[in-house]
C-alpha cells in the first residue's frame, strides 16, 4: 500500500474519532411567570456525568426572538449550566439577548422558576413562575465499538496490502 493511502487511512480514523468525542444534547424549555414568558431550545455539551454547558439557544421571550446566548458571568451571574438527571437550571441560570435589546436571565430559584429581564434603559424586571426543562434529543455520535470495528478493518486492509508481494513475473506457459 502506498504511503499516501496509509496517511489517508490515518486521517480518516482521526476524523472519525474526533467526531465521536463531541455530542450535543437538545433541551426544551418553557417559562411562565406573572409578567414574563419564554420558550425554546437549549443546545448543550456534556461537561461531566451530571452537568451540561449551554452552547446555543433559540426561541422567544415575551414575543421577542432570542438572538444570542450571553457568555458566562455577563448578566445575573449566569453560568449557562444544566444539571441532570432531572434537567434544571441552577441559581445562576442562563442569560441571553432578545431582538428588542432586552437581556434575560432564566434561573431556578430553589425549585421555582425565575427570570430577570433587563430593559435597554437598565431597569430590571424580576419575575417568578414555572420553569420546565426537558431533554429532547441527543445528537447521534458513532458508538465506540463501531469505530473500533472500522479501525480494525482499515488496519487489516493496510496490513494485507503491505504484506502482499510485489508484482512478480509469472513463468511462461508451455504450449
Task: Describe the fold and architecture.
The protein is an alpha+beta fold and 175 residues long. It is built from 2 helices and 10 strands; from the N terminus they run H-E-E-E-E-E-E-E-E-E-E-H. The protein has helices at 3-20, 144-163, and strands at 24-33, 37-48, 51-61, 64-69, 81-83, 88-89, 94-98, 103-109, 112-118, 124-138. A hairpin with a 4-residue loop joins strand 7 (94-98) and strand 8 (103-109). The two termini are 35 Å apart. The mean pLDDT is 80.
Quote the beta fraction.
Answer: 35-45%
Overall 3D shape = elongated
Q: Give the end-to-end Cα distance, rounded to a whole number of Å.
A: 35 Å
Give the radius of gyration.
Answer: 26 Å
Percent helix range = 10-25%
Short recap of the structure:
This protein has about 180 residues and is of the alpha+beta class.
Provide the descriptors you would attach to this structure in a database record.
175 residues, alpha+beta, 8-stranded antiparallel beta barrel, 2 helices, elongated
Architecture blueprint of SSEs:
Blueprint: H1 3-20, E1 24-33, E2 37-48, E3 51-61, E4 64-69, E5 81-83, E6 88-89, E7 94-98, E8 103-109, E9 112-118, E10 124-138, H2 144-163
Antiparallel strand pairs: 1-2, 1-10, 2-3, 3-4, 3-5, 4-7, 5-6, 7-8, 8-9, 9-10
Helix pairs in contact: 1-2
